[in-house]
Amino acid sequence: MNQQDKFNNSVAVLVKAYFEGVLEKGNCYACAVGNLVVDAMGFTLAPHRLAWFDSEGQDIPFAWRRNDKEGERQRNAIGYSRAQVILIEQAFEGWGDYNDGPGSEYDGLMRVVDVLAEIHSIDLTTVAASKALLYAPKSYGTL
User: Fold this and answer.
1) 4: left (phi over 0), alpha (psi -120 to 50) or beta
2) For position 98, what pLDDT does the model report?
3) What is the DSSP string of 82-98?
4) Domain of life of the organism in this record (predicted)?
5) What is the domain range of residue 21?
6) What whole-number distance in Å separates Cα of residue 13 and Cα of residue 40?
7) Would residue 141 count as lying in a domain?
8) 137 belongs to a structural domain
9) Residue 22 located in a structural domain
10) How many separate domains does the chain show?
């Protein structure tokens, strides 16, 4: 998969998770990287979003941050290095500028698109088009 395709795929996975309501800050199973792992490895995210299950129903621990065999397996599945995974996580969680109020997943996802664009050397026109996928209204209550 070339850099453009990898970028597009990662953004598509995260946009889908956002609109399905399964993108969640502060939850390693449902954060940006967690959703990439779920998609790449064919896992199922538990309804309470606190566990992953493989196709045989086995509970799979999140390990993408770890520097061990399972962590490497999960990172290899999504195609990002440990350093890149940490950058994606930091962007989504907004470390240093943490906001867990309404819209925080949206804000984090916008930062992730920028980080993915940097990782994959994507032009600004493509970045703008990717972010436009998230401009569709999503209800946060009263604005």
Assistant:
1) alpha
2) 54
3) HHHHHHHHHHHHTTTS-
4) Bacteria
5) 3-132
6) 9
7) no
8) no
9) yes
10) 1
* Mean pLDDT of the 108-136 span: 89
Contact 34, 44 (CB under 8 A): no
Q: End-to-end distance of the chain based on CA atoms, in angstroms?
A: 40
Residue owning tokens 């061990």: 68
135 is written with which tokens? 């401009």
Task: Tell me how far apart the alpha carbons of residues 22 and 91 are, in angstroms, rounded to a whole number.
Answer: 17
Q: Which residue has the tokens 């209800």?
A: 139
Can you give the pTM of this predicted structure?
0.85
Query: Is residue 142 domain-resident?
Result: no
**Interval 42-83: pLDDT, tens:** 999 888 878 888 888 888 888 888 889 988 999 999 999 999
